[in-house]
Amino acid sequence: MIKEKQILADARKIINDAIDTNLGKDGYVWRSKAWAAVKGAEQILDLVSDYIKKHELILAMKLCILVLEEMMKAEIDDSNAGEKGRVIFDAIDKLGIITSFLKEDDHATSFDLILAHAANKHYSGWPNWREEIYETLKPLCTTPERQRALDEKMTSNKKKYGEVFNFMIKETQTVEEYIAQVNPEHHEIIAKTRELIKECVPGVAEQISYRMPTYKLNGKVVVHFHAGKEHLGLYPEADGVAEFLPKLGDYKTTKGAIQFPYKKGIPYDLIREIVQFKKERAE
Questions:
Q1: 256 and 135 assigned to the same domain
Q2: What residues contact 279, with CB distance under 8 A and at least 6 apart?
Q3: DSSP states of 188-227 as a string?
Q4: pLDDT tens-digit series, residues 170-222
Q5: pLDDT tens digits for 242-260?
Q6: Contact call for residues 66 and 196 (beta carbons, < 8 A)
Q7: Pseudo-torsion of CA 247, 250, 256, 258, nearest 10°?
Q8: What's the domain count of the chain?
Q9: Is the domain of 192 the same as that of 126?
Q10: Within 10 A of 24 (CB to CB), how many other CB atoms are there?
Q11: Are 111 and 148 in contact (CB under 8 A)?
């Protein structure tokens, strides 16, 4: 228990140090530094993956919840499809993996812990995130009581937030709907990026994941992309970034993402190389 408390305390410090380092004088992380502010949370999610592999699922679950807590309250000028949102959805995705593997003896306490987290006031403006957390609880509903409790929460969430909730879900159902929400000034860039990916990877499966257009081959992610306010975000995962780091120059990168500012022009030839590399890895 002492070891677990120390791991959680250290993880919280890592997350908050990255956020604090990138705070402006007004106590706010601006969009230009959002990519750096989430690096601590990304580091902890890598740790979560390690604990999942080791089957230390309770600790992995608590770390996921910690990441969500700190990201939800972080004052980052970022959309729900940006850097902060990407990390939040990654944490929720890992939480879903964890709950699907938990032993039945751990169902009750884990259900209560996650359900209590979902009640966090910071989700009031983001009912879609709360709903996705509720979805991770379904494997734990192995008693009628827990199933009823979850059903009540999900119904209340949809009823309370009504049109706001429905709009958030609707805008991410298809890539066409995603593009329709993008600034018209960037439609040509997004359309060209989309076609480039489909041309490079014949038969690629197109879907929405993490609120972004996502492309998979043989069930493996080739790439995601996101239309930011000032940049095209390309997400070729860690191996894609690492492979092309020497060619990325002064483009901002995180472990699994690259930012291509619109004002500099989009390097489609480089994107083609990255997508081709990821295609070969997925074949």
A1: no
A2: 200, 201, 204, 217, 222
A3: HHHHHHHHHHHHHSTT-EEEEETTEEEEEETTEEEEEEEE
A4: 445 788 888 887 888 899 999 999 999 999 999 999 988 767 888 999 888 89
A5: 899 999 999 988 777 888 9
A6: no
A7: -90
A8: 2
A9: no
A10: 12
A11: no
